[in-house]
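ingest -> validate -> predict -> emit
validate: passed (alphabet ok, no gaps, 187 aa)
predict: started
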Amino acid sequence: MENRIYVFIDAANLWEAFKAKGRFLDFDKTIKHIKEKFNGVSVKAFYYTAYPAEGTRIYSLDKKHKFFTFLKKGLGFEVIKKELKRISIVNEHGEAIEEKGNMDVEITIDALHHSSKYDTAVFFTGDSDFLALVTYLRNHRKKVFVFSSKNNVSQELRTGTDGYTDVLGIEDIWGKELKHRAELKKS
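emit:
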């Protein structure tokens, strides 16, 4: 039986795994791992991220945009991105800016819109908000798997899918070492 796989990557959720592992995922190796693990004939990957608006950070965003280009042109990913929303809030310390970049709605719309094109959905997230989507897909005869880190996955997703994998335990999918921004400034 053919197994067409669609992968939906919530970059903000995955960032927690990067910090825990101290490394970035090697996305090429990750997709190969998924294709092999689930006996896939094809894999299509979607990467969802929000990024800071130009001028809101002291560092250049060029590397982030080069990374998006690599995912799209180098690996064939669909990259869905948007600028972080900047919201002015007032708290006990005065006025502050909070940034929001939730991509849950975009992930849900794409998973539903493309559901006739895949047999298996793999979500890189741990957010319990996805339980309704997972339940819907499973009720429509889709296999659904979640990849996340053990400290960043809801119990609902661990038990509500066809399977959960702790990405921290997969050794052959990790790439470059994660460096703290202060270390990057020194070089």
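Residues 181-187 have pLDDT under 50 and may be disordered.
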